[in-house]
Design goal:
Layout (H helix, E strand, L loop, with lengths): L2 H10 L4 H15 L3 E2 L3 E4 L5 E8 L5 E5 L5 H6 L11 E3 L2 E5 L8 H9 L4 E6 L4 H18 L2 E6 L17 E3 L11 E4 L14 H10 L4 H4 L2 H4 L10
Parallel strand pairs: 6-7, 7-8
Antiparallel strand pairs: 1-3, 2-3, 3-4, 5-6, 8-9, 9-10
């Protein structure tokens, strides 16, 4: 399949956007749960194709978070567009944000939403091999530690006869800061690699708030903003 076929194919995915949103909205209402859906190629009226994650509430709200950073495949093969707005969702259960896959590899994004008050980061991802999966997974752990925040990571598994999406490597996990109130290894729960399953854990936002004030380290609070305002000094040696 040449690049033009790939670009056409991913744009045809938008034909399923309405069906996808209707199904997830129906499930959210039926089970009275808040659903963070995986991202989906979405065409906008201005012709832009964005990789958009959707948040569905039992009351019928459908909220969106566009992917901010495109991978090389998305940029070069699919010719998608990049989102430019982070959102923080103030829910009855706490404040949450969605960072789609590659976006979790950029510490600045997580810090922005956490400084705005995020308690939980949701990270839907799609990676085709173990090393790609581990890039996302390790960054989830780093963001949880840096920002003293819970991170929920869910990823695609299985195979498809489609170029660029043929293989999937994934393992869902609910990740915590690395400190005494939480799981010893910073993992509240995790699934089995490459198995479709449901992973469940209870997280207590009171533990999170206490840790941000009294933790062994408090990196969300201790950031030296004065230093960050200075340019890096280059020192020639030799």
């Amino acid at each position: 399949m040449d690049t033009s076929d790939l670009r056409a194919a991913v744009r045809h995915m938008h034909d399923y956007t309405r069906r996808y949103k209707d199904l997830m909205s129906e499930l959210s209402a039926q089970w009275n749960v808040h659903l963070i859906g995986g991202s989906h190629p979405t065409l906008h009226d201005d012709g832009r194709l964005l990789n958009t994650a959707y948040y569905f509430t039992p009351g019928g709200q459908v909220l969106e978070q566009d992917k901010i950073h495109r991978t090389r495949w998305e940029r070069d093969k699919w010719n998608t567009d990049a989102g430019d707005q982070l959102r923080l969702f103030d829910t009855p259960f706490g404040k949450v944000a969605i960072l789609v896959c590659y976006d979790i590899e950029f510490p600045e994004l997580a810090r922005m939403v956490c400084e705005a008050g995020a308690d939980i980061l949701f990270v839907p991802s799609c990676t085709d091999d173990r090393q790609g999966f581990l890039r996302v997974r390790y960054c989830c752990h780093a963001r949880a530690i840096e920002n003293q925040v819970f991170v929920v990571h869910t990823s695609t598994v299985g195979n498809l006869p489609v170029e660029g999406l043929g293989l999937h490597y994934g393992q869902a996990a609910i990740i915590t800061p690395s400190d005494f109130p939480f799981a010893r290894d910073g993992i509240a729960a995790e699934g089995t690699p490459n198995i479709e399953q449901i992973v469940v854990a209870e997280v207590d936002l009171n533990d999170l708030q206490s840790n941000r004030l009294h933790g062994t380290t408090i990196p969300l609070h201790d950031k030296r903003r004065d230093v960050y305002a200075h340019p890096v000094e280059v020192v020639k040696v030799g």
